[in-house]
């Protein structure tokens, strides 16, 4: 039987295993530390500039969700990790003038974009931070997270890890900003960097859709060294993962920081092209390419588009997820199900979306927003759901409380019928003719690889 000292030593070792610096996390799997920490560890190992961070594992999260508070050993391990963050950054959490601020983010093994809580600018001392960790663990059971898991077949018992990371700031002048970048176009699958960048802003402004981002390519003119470093990092990560990747980044005073890396969200059509192109580039086999595209994605890759004779659109935004959807306007996520009783198809129309809109997005046949870019919450979740979507529609005003939409000189109300084309970004009044797309060469090749000879 172990002595008390031996037992305490084992508990301390277990605590160290449950609170892990990102620099030591490369050998741990996503089920233990979550996809976010896996991405941070990979970027750190590849030599990319990543703000220092540590992860509290999903085992701790499951215990917290079962009603067990953070014990003394886990709390001590978190405090020690915070001291290491202070040493690495040269700043203190309790500094009265310029404190070290950290973000406290969820990180499940399976990506659940925006469905759990993120706490930013947390500082002041280890107790304001341990409480934040417990709060983020608890967000696994929010109604929006449960709805997302149910729709996507994610097990409720999986739980989430939590990442604590030193913050960098994109709102510190003209040489600062934030963005999200893809190694390939998430809607078409075309090779080359794409995404959104918002100067003088934080990442939350980009993802929420509240700002007016520019294509990430503007960095080539504004900060060419940053653009080159970002493109190089995307290329390195794509080769490392043998898949299209999506990164969140911040530029602080002209210095690029990589904040997150994950498998890039993509439309069904993009999934087909990316799988075929990666096989052609020798990164994956034909068998892997076939396995990466589901039967539903093959079917959705042949979605209709608006026919040329449909007439001029009311407005044109950014096509965020291909497909044509015709349905009744609904400006409230909570009313989509009710309106669907009267109308067979409903288009959710919002200024922008947030995680609270997930149930309405799941129930809708299409999504239209007046703000946001291709990496906004609306666009990211629409691609995850394969929901036809147009974002950033020009000249559109949405009165969500009144249930009314104004596009130019046209006033629309809840129940009025519109058609959106998630490939072209067009928005039309009423139902309009559609056509089948031309045969897709990438889909034909993928199909040939899956057909026995």
Attribute tags:
single chain, 453 residues, alpha+beta, Dna Ligase, domain 1, D-amino Acid Aminotransferase, Chain A, domain 1, 4 domains, eight-stranded mixed sheet, five-stranded antiparallel sheet, 23 strands, 25% strand, globular, disordered N terminus
Structure explained in plain terms:
This protein is 37% helix and 25% strand. Helix 1 packs across helix 4 and helix 11 packs across helix 16. The chain starts with a helix and ends with a helix. The N terminus is likely disordered. The protein has an eight-stranded mixed sheet. It has a five-stranded antiparallel sheet with strand order 1-2-5-3-4. A five-stranded antiparallel sheet has the order 8-7-6-9-10. The chain folds into four domains: 163 residues, ATP-grasp fold, A domain (Dna Ligase, domain 1); 87 residues, D-amino Acid Aminotransferase, Chain A, domain 1 (2-Layer Sandwich), CATH 3.30.470; 47 residues, no CATH class; 131 residues, Phosphohistidine domain (Glucose Oxidase, domain 1), CATH 3.50.30.10. A hairpin with a 6-residue loop joins strand 6 and strand 7. The chain is built from 16 helices and 23 strands. It is globular. The chain has 453 residues and is of the alpha+beta class.
Low-confidence spans: 1-15
Gross morphology: globular
- Round the Cα radius of gyration to an integer and report it: 23 Å
Strand order of the largest sheet: 12-22-21-14-15-16-17-13
Instruction: Determine the fraction of residues in helical runs and give it as a percent range.
Output: 25-40%
Please indicate the percent range of residues in DSSP E strands (runs of 2 or more).
15-25%
Which class of the largest domain in CATH terms?
A: Alpha Beta
Second CATH tier, the architecture of the largest domain: 2-Layer Sandwich
**SS-based class:** alpha+beta
User: Terminal Cα separation, in Å?
Assistant: 64 Å
Profile the largest sheet: 8 strands, mixed
């Amino acid at each position: 039987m172990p002595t008390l000292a031996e037992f305490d030593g084992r508990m301390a070792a277990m605590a160290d295993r449950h609170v892990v610096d990102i620099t030591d996390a490369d050998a741990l799997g996503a089920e233990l530390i979550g996809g976010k920490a896996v991405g941070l560890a990979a970027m750190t190992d590849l030599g990319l500039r990543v703000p220092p961070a540590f992860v509290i594992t999903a085992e701790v999260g499951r215990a917290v969700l079962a009603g067990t508070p953070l014990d003394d050993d886990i709390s001590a391990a978190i405090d020690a990790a915070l001291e290491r963050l202070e040493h690495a950054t040269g700043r203190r959490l309790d500094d009265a003038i310029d404190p070290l601020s950290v973000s406290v983010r969820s990180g499940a093994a399976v990506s659940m974009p925006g469905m759990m809580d993120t706490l930013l600018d947390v500082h002041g001392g280890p107790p304001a931070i341990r409480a934040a960790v417990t709060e983020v663990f608890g967000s696994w059971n929010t109604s929006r997270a449960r709805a997302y898991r149910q729709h996507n077949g994610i097990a409720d018992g999986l739980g989430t890890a939590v990442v604590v990371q030193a913050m960098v700031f994109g709102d510190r002048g003209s040489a600062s900003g934030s963005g999200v970048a893809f190694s390939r176009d998430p809607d078409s699958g075309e090779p080359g960097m794409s995404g959104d960048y918002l100067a003088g802003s934080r990442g939350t402004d980009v993802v929420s859709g509240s700002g007016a981002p520019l294509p990430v390519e503007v960095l080539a003119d504004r900060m060419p060294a940053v653009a080159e470093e970002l493109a190089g990092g995307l290329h390195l990560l794509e080769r490392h993962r043998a898949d299209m990747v999506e990164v969140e980044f911040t530029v602080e005073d002209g210095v690029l920081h990589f904040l997150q890396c994950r498998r890039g969200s993509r439309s069904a059509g993009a999934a087909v092209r990316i799988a075929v192109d990666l096989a052609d580039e020798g990164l994956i086999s034909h068998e892997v390419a076939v396995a990466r595209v589901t039967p539903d994605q093959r079917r959705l890759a042949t979605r209709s588009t608006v026919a040329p004779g449909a007439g001029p659109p009311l407005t044109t935004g950014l096509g965020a997820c291909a497909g044509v959807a015709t349905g009744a306007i609904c400006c409230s996520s909570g009313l989509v199900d009710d309106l669907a009783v009267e109308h067979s198809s409903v288009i959710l129309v919002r200024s922008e979306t947030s995680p609270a809109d997930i149930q309405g997005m799941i129930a809708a046949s299409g999504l239209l927003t007046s703000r946001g870019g291709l990496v906004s919450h609306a666009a990211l979740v629409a691609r995850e759901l394969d929901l036809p979507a147009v974002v950033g529609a020009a000249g559109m005003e949405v009165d969500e409380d009144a249930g009314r939409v104004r596009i130019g000189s046209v006033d629309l109300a809840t129940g009025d019928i519109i058609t959106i084309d998630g490939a072209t970004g067009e928005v039309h009044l009423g139902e309009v003719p559609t056509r089948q797309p031309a045969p897709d060469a990438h889909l034909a090749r993928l199909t040939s690889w899956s057909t026995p000879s």
